[in-house]
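User: Quick sanity check before I run a bigger batch. Here is a single chain. Can you write out its predicted 3D structure?
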Amino acid sequence: MSDLDATHSPRHDIGRLLEEYDRALAYTDSLWSDLRDDDVRWRPHENFSPIAWHLGHQAAVSHFMVRNLTAAEPLLDPELDRLMDSATAEADRGDMPDGERLRSYRIRAAERLRVRMNDIDAGRVGAPRQLRHIAAGLLIAVINHEYQHSTWIAEVRSDHLGRSLPDRPVSGLLIELDGYPLVI
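Assistant: Done. Predicted structure follows.
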């Protein structure tokens, strides 16, 4: 087996990936920050996930990945963690929290991700080179997942709520594939 040094790969530049993560979060926020709680919770039928679910799900997945792949951290909010899991049937996604609780949940998940990624980037972990590879893959997956769900949020915002859309993010790390922004 070769002994790769991940610190020389742009794909493993944790700082650059964290910047893209922040861009993805900001884009998602631009899609819902001006909406009323009723709009964020709206769904036309029980087999439709409201914007609120997508927002919570993005955070839940981010935190699940951090706590299962890089650090054994406690749950953020056991009730929301359960509700926002994709294993929760779509019909059971109707009782959504208000915007402030969602915003807080998203902020805490992002903070925990940043703390852990910065520790990995600084080498303050066991097996720092191995975890750098794990962290880079995790960040790419979380960023792509954020953009995936932001695309669906944008569809609800535009197609169902009749609201205009902000400009999509532009970055040297992003391409568009099948209509989704994607870090490759």
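Residues 6-183 form a domain with the Four Helix Bundle (Hemerythrin (Met), subunit A) fold (CATH 1.20.120.450).

User: Great, the batch can go ahead then.
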